Amino acid sequence: MGSRSELMYFAWRNTKVRVGVLILALFVILAIVGPLFARHDPNAYVGPPAHPPSREYWLGTTTFGQDVYSQFVHGLRATFIVGLLGGGIGTLLGVCIGLLAGYRGGMVDEILNMFTNIVLILPTLAVLIIIAAYLTVRGILVESLFIGCTAWPWAARAIRAQTFSLRAREFVDLARMSGRSSWKIMFYEIAPNMLSYLFMTFILQFGGAVLIAATLDFIGLGPTQGISLGLMMNNAVLWAALPLGMWWWLIPPGAAITAIVGALYVMNVGLDEVFNPKLREL
Amino acid sequence: MALRVENLRIYYRTLRGYVHAVEGATFSVGDGEIMGLAGESGCGKTTLGHSLIYLKPPMAYIEGRVFLDGRELPIWDMDRMNEFRFRHISIIPQYAMNALNPTRRIGPLIADLLATRGIDFRQILPELQRRLDLVQLSPEVLNRYPFELSGGMRQRVVMVISTLLNPSLLIADEITSALDVSTQRAVCEMIVEFRNRGFVRSTIFITHDMSILYQIADTILVMYAGQLAEKAPVEAIFRSPRHPYTRMLIASLPRVGARQRVERLKGIPGSPPPLLDPPPGCRFRDRCPLAFERCQEPPPFVEVEPGHFVACWREI
Amino acid sequence: MLALENVTKVYRTGALGLRKLIAVSEVSFEIGEREIVALIGESGSGKTTIGKMILRLFRPTSGVIRFEGKDIFSLRGPALKDYYRQVQGVFQDPFASYNPIFKADRVFALIREEFYPRIRRSAWEQRVEEALRAVGLNPSDVLGKYPHQLSGGQLQRFLIARALLLDIRLLVADEIISMLDASTRIDVLNLLGDLRERGLSILFITHDLSLGYYISDRSIVLYRGRVVEMGATERIYARPLHPYTEMLMESIPRIDGRWGATSHRVERSAVLSGAFGCVYYPRCPIAQEICARRAPELTEVEAGHFVACHVRAEASSSAG
């Protein structure tokens, strides 16, 4: 049994990973396939207002007669895109800065550390409000960019710590003695050893991005057009969905976000057990 | 006989099956004997030593009986062994210097340990102080935290604690491997001193360093790939070894006085067999220059001369 | 070929970097062609630090390390690569030297990429096979495997083969034997001797004197970052002059004789000698007043045999 197939064996055997992957897969399929079944544009006023789920409208309609199902599946897509983009940018930034700071140490580390700390304590909400004031029309791209550029600090910190410990290992010395340049060492020697960590970092960033996006949308700082799960929840609360008994408007998006982010986090814990042999139970 | 081991079989439970770490070990250690347990890494010596006192997963007890001073040791039962541990059988682990709880002072640590055995610290204190003095530690040490002492001092503290209740059998597991040459000698001499003064009756000294055993052991038990190869008084092992493995091992030891340009020593080509699915018969077969067909059958560990045991078809 | 001149390495420790840890202090020695020099010391002696400085992995705080007359820390670009073409190292833990997620051969691939980018594949494979055979490995046994599939002895030899691919002149071997089994040790040691016959020089860093005696031509004894004795191996072992060397010789477990009585053990407070006195003062049985005040210099007491001890240097000069 090679080491890679051993990893796959443990990954699949781990209930947490299995459950997490399955739940995620479910939603991904829904996000891809769902909109194909949506007969109406998500924001169009098409049906009778405040109608509960029926055969015509699978998840009912909003106060304005918009198709909740259509909103849901399109919103799911938007949520995943933000997660991928925002999470991806955050991971990339975190990895590059963390690797550089951890490997070079010294003055480079000090400067990058300072930078990281500043971004960490930045009051993101305040900044976002200012940005919102300037950019009156915002799309998903801007939102993802913003999330990615503010969520990377803790990833950078964690990766820097890992890099520190890997840097002192003898195979790095060997690479230096083989005349390798620092960049090659960082990306070809150190980073591959942290693959599991990088993977888990991405998962957490993804989940985090989804959550932040939902929050931003909920308080109205999200994209100005389009639909997302957070926006759905925003509208639902704004128009008193719950007191009026329109559970089909509020519950599905909330449950979806909870399930997705929850699945990601559970998968992460499971993967930790997979990658770290000491945590495994035989 | 202080310790008698009969047909002990200890395997490791792993994902891929059982690792045959100790295969049918039968030997005894007499009263007052310091027996060196020698062999290369993976030969099973540490497993054997630990199984006698602390057999926990992934180690699995398969079969065998162990008798200490005539009483059978229930080594498979961790709870019942509690009665024997520390009092009748004790161990000094490898990296003993790191075995002390860094957040407690040494005195209270010992007091707690004794309390679990129902012994009053104050009653044993005078003896404890005498022993500390013997290993050249001031009784002040009891008021210190472990990090305030040097590595060598911590090692000595652990040695004193392990032998405090005068166990019949002391297992010393590679206690010299992490030490400097000068401390190594001091620790070895202490082991002998403990025996001479009756603090410990018999000792099993586990190490891969044969030259240390030459200095302090009475007898040496050589293990190879989970099987016992040879047991004999120390002079016999070094001057007239009978197992091919022992012979080749002794021949490969550099000694001060031997220079490569003058006399080139030879190693043993090849490597030990995997213990997950070991080959039948004598496990040294593949590397042995004297192997023949009979070696497919595992040779018994028999006494070929008084006190000299060998497991080799060529010698029986 | 290689010369260390008053090399010192000081680390800053403590909360604000206020405390100093002197790892290596004013060490000077040379390594010539075709010789094996044993650098002997216990933990804390600075021997590994010296090895890593020679390999340009750490920078000395002061002093110069010269290779063929040039300061190795002034080298850049192609000159630096040229240095590594001639000087390489092998470390103590065979498994730690390999990147665990790649196959063992990758260490060869790195060499090819950095030093022989234009070599043809067949020529390279032939070179690799020659190097493997030279260290006693069978190419078909060891190529294409992951590090955990090979034994410690095989991994160490693999690393030596890697160094041979470069036609090196100096190999720094830092405790390469200590993690190997008894039966493999002697084979790797013999290999080092064979390499010397091929024209290689080796700096053999070890704490085990019997190994040093077996294989080295000259020995340098380190204590707490300073050279205390230096000279032809046979002379040092036959007639150790420094009290620390004597203590080491006394304490090695031998298999041709039992330990004799220990010489007088001493423990004094280090405060008495402070930063200026002899580094061995706190443990020295023959120390005198001058030893606490002034650190001794390395003096030549017989041809090629140096010792840093006021008392012994004095005794030798008055006797000889």
Structure at a glance:
The complex is a heterotrimer of chains A (282), B (316) and C (320). Chain A has helices at 3-13, 15-37, 68-104, 106-121, 124-134, 140-151, 153-167, 170-177, 182-193, 195-218, 229-238, 247-275. By secondary structure, chain A is mainly α.
Keyword list:
heterotrimer; B: 316 residues; alpha/beta; eight-stranded mixed beta sheet; 9 helices; 12 strands; 27% helix; globular; C: 320 residues; Rossmann fold; four-stranded antiparallel beta sheet; 35% helix
Which pair of chains has the greatest number of interface residues, and how are they split between the two chains?
B-C, 37 and 37 residues
What fraction strand of chain B? 15-25%
Q: What would the average pLDDT of chain B be, to the nearest integer?
A: 88
The structure class of chain A reads mainly alpha
Share in helix of chain B? 25-40%
- Mean pLDDT of chain A, nearest integer? 83
| Poorly predicted parts of chain A | none
**Rg of chain A, Cα atoms, Å:** 22 Å
Structure description:
The complex is a heterotrimer of chains A (282), B (316) and C (320). With 282 residues, chain A is mainly alpha-helical. Helices cover 74% and strands 0% of the residues of chain A. Chain A has one domain (24-56, 73-279): MetI-like fold, CATH 1.10.3720. Chain A has twelve helices and no strands. The model of chain A has no long low-confidence stretch (mean pLDDT 83). Chain B has helices at residues 45-51, 78-81, 106-116, 121-134, 151-162, 181-196, 210-216, 234-239, 244-251, and strands at 3-14, 17-29, 34-38, 59-68, 71-72, 89-92, 169-173, 202-207, 219-224, 227-233, 302-305, 308-310. Chain B has an eight-stranded mixed sheet with strand order 6-7-8-3-9-10-12-11, sandwiched between helices. Chain B has 316 residues and is of the alpha/beta class. Chain C has two domains: 2-238, Rossmann fold, CATH 3.40.50.300; 240-320, no CATH class. The longest helix of chain C has 16 residues, at 182-197. The mean pLDDT of chain C is 85. Chains A and B meet through loops of A and loops of B.
Question: What is the topology?
Answer:
The complex is a heterotrimer of chains A (282), B (316) and C (320).
Chain A lengths: L2 H11 L1 H23 L30 H37 L1 H16 L2 H11 L5 H12 L1 H15 L2 H8 L4 H12 L1 H24 L10 H10 L8 H29 L7
Chain B lengths: L2 E12 L2 E13 L4 E5 L6 H7 L7 E10 L2 E2 L5 H4 L7 E4 L13 H11 L4 H14 L16 H12 L6 E5 L7 H16 L5 E6 L2 H7 L2 E6 L2 E7 H6 L4 H8 L50 E4 L2 E3 L6
Parallel strand pairs in B: 3-8, 3-9, 6-7, 7-8
Antiparallel strand pairs in B: 1-2, 1-4, 4-5, 9-10, 10-12, 11-12
Chain C lengths: L1 E12 L5 E13 L4 E5 L6 H8 L7 E6 L2 E2 L5 H10 E4 L15 H10 L5 H14 L4 H4 L9 H13 L5 E5 L7 H16 L3 E6 L2 H7 L2 E6 L2 E7 H6 L4 H9 L37 H5 L5 E4 L2 E3 L2 H10 L1
Parallel strand pairs in C: 3-8, 3-9, 6-7, 7-8
Antiparallel strand pairs in C: 1-2, 1-4, 4-5, 9-10, 10-12, 11-12
Helix pairs in contact in C: 4-6
